[in-house]
Amino acid sequence: MDALSIAIAFGVRLAMVLLFLPFSALDKILDFRGAIAQAEQDVSSRSAATALIAAGFFIEVVMSAGVLTGVADRAAACVLALYCATTALLWKQFWRPGDFWVGSHSRGRALFWDFWKNVALAGGFLLITFGTSAATVGQFFANPLSSTHPYAAEPQMTRMEENTKPLLSHAVAGSVASGFGLQARYVVAARHRSP
Length: 195
Hints:
Elements: H1 2-17, H2 19-30, H3 32-40, H4 46-69, H5 73-91, H6 107-130, H7 137-142, H8 159-193
Helix pairs in contact: 1-4, 2-3, 2-4, 3-4, 4-5, 5-6
C-alpha cells in the first residue's frame, strides 16, 4: 500500500506541474524569440521582456522541482500560485478584447477560460502551501521553507506540532480530570438532596 500511496502522491504533484515542467519551460527554450515577442506585447523594452522570460523559466523549472521532490515544497507551491495568478492578470485579461459577448468563439471568451484555469491551478498550489485545513495554515507561516513530506509513509510532525503536543496532552488530561471531579461532585450533591 505504501508504494501505491507514494505513486498517487507523486502522480498528483506531477499533474500539477506538468504544464510548467517540461512543457512551458521547454517551449521557452525551443522558441525563445517567440516567448520574448509575446512578453514584449506587455512590456516596453526587449531587455525587460527577456528578464520576464528568464524569471518565468527559473520559476517553472526550480519551483516545479521543489513541488515534485518535496524540498521546500510549501514555498515552491506558494511561488507557483503567485506565478499562476500573475500570469492570469497580465496575459489572460479576458476583459480587454471587448468581444466577450460577441460570440462563443471570441478572443475574450477564450481568455476567460484560460484566466479561470490559472486561478484554479493557483488554488491547487495553495493547497500544498497551506494544507487542506485551517489547522495547517500556521505551519507555513511558522516555517515557510518546510516540507510537507509528500512521500513519507507515515504523517510527519512539524516542529510546531512537536512543541505543542506535550502542552496539549497536559491540557486534555487536566480538563478530563477536572471534568471527572465536576461529575463526581455533581453525583455527591445529587445524592445528598435525594430523600
